[in-house]
Amino acid sequence: MRKPIRRVLVTGAQGLLGRALAAAIPRADGAVEVDLASRADLDVTDPAAVAERFRRSSPDAVVHAAAFTDVDGAEADPETCYRVNALAAGTVAREAGSSRAALAFVSTDFVFDGSKGVAYCEWDEPRPRGVYARSKRWGEELVLAAHPGALVLRTAWLFGPGGRSFVEKILERGAGGAPFDVVDGQFGTPSYAPDVAATLWKLLSRGESGIVHCVNRGVASRLEFARAILEAGGLDPSLARPTTEARLARPAPRPTFSALANLRLEAAGIRMRPWREALLEHLGVRVPGGAR
Predict the structure, then answer these.
(1) What pLDDT is attached to residue 163?
(2) Using CA atoms, how far apart are residues 197 and 158, in angstroms rounded to an integer?
(3) How far apart are CA 292 and CA 97, in angstroms?
(4) What structural domains and CATH numbers belong to the chain?
(5) Considering 82, 120, 132, 192, which one is annotated as catalytic?
(6) In the 8-state DSSP scheme, what is residue 119?
(7) CA 115 to each of CA 17, 60, 124, 131, 259: distance values in angstroms, whole numbers, following the listed order
(8) pLDDT of residue 288
(9) Does residue 192 carry a catalytic annotation?
(10) What pLDDT does 269 receive?
(11) Which of 21, 27, 25, 128 lies closest to 85 in space, CA to CA?
């Protein structure tokens, strides 16, 4: 019988998803205690430190959201990337398994190479390209090997309060008033961190396990997403000009089409809202009818 969740340990607590989880987990009247572990107070690459945190926290559930997310930086520092995204994930999974704690590991659309051409389902074979992508896929494998009952939640293109995501970067560029380039040939699924966090908590509370995709509905190119951000922010969408990945010549490869399909979520009766609606809420834009 699954024990109720009374105490949760969240790693990566200062990230976009970590902050959203802190708000999504019900803590009123002591319903759930949340131990928020940031990079500053928990080195997830140190097995002894992780074991000590588990001993002190004694969690019923763990959300491992800590990650090395600098996709281009990973190419220059693969050792750190693999230590954080893969080896540390295995360490956390082993500790969670030995303490009989439920576990959710946050993964990414980058585990796919983008060659499918339509949205990826949970059962599609990962083909990661680049150090970051391979490190996250290895993390998935280590987590599921060490904790077979773990939930691996793949999400993508996160934006939300409390961080500097693609949304904030585009608004900063647009506020300058000068045209700038955005890749037009890269497609994915923009996802609102508070929506993903609320769904993750629901799945964890239900005792769901295995691989689940969790993104807001709708597919967009980076350029389409950028122009929607500018428009919602009251700026000129045409400031974002199309360019190609080849012209940008970034160190790490990106999947051309890494949109995710939420098939397991929908089978469980959970339907995510469209990303455009979530973007408007994030930017505080009122939509017709007074809704936000």
Answers:
(1) 81
(2) 11
(3) 41
(4) 7-163+190-217+258-272 (3.40.50.720)
(5) 132
(6) P
(7) 28, 39, 12, 18, 11
(8) 54
(9) no
(10) 94
(11) 128
Those residues whose C-beta lies under 8 Å from the C-beta of residue 133, and which sit 6 or more positions away, are: 108, 110, 111, 253, 255
Is 106 buried (19+), middle (13-18) or exposed (0-12) by CB count in 10 A? buried
- SS3 of residue 122 by DSSP: coil
Residue 204 burial (C-beta neighbours within 10 Å; 0-12, 13-18, 19+): buried
Res 2: pLDDT? 64
Q: Cα–Cα distance between 150 and 153 in angstroms, integer?
A: 10
The secondary structure element, H or E, covering residue 34 is strand 33-37
CA distance 137 to 152: 11
Q: What's the CA angle centered on 182, arms 178 and 188, to 5 degrees?
A: 145
Question: What are the per-10-residue average pLDDT scores of the chain (292 residues)?
Answer: 83 95 82 92 96 96 96 97 98 96 98 95 97 98 97 97 92 96 94 97 95 98 97 96 90 95 96 97 73 37
Distance separating alpha carbons of residues 181 and 238, to the nearest angstrom: 10
Kindly report the pTM of this predicted structure.
0.94
Question: 165: which 2 tokens?
Answer: 């995501």
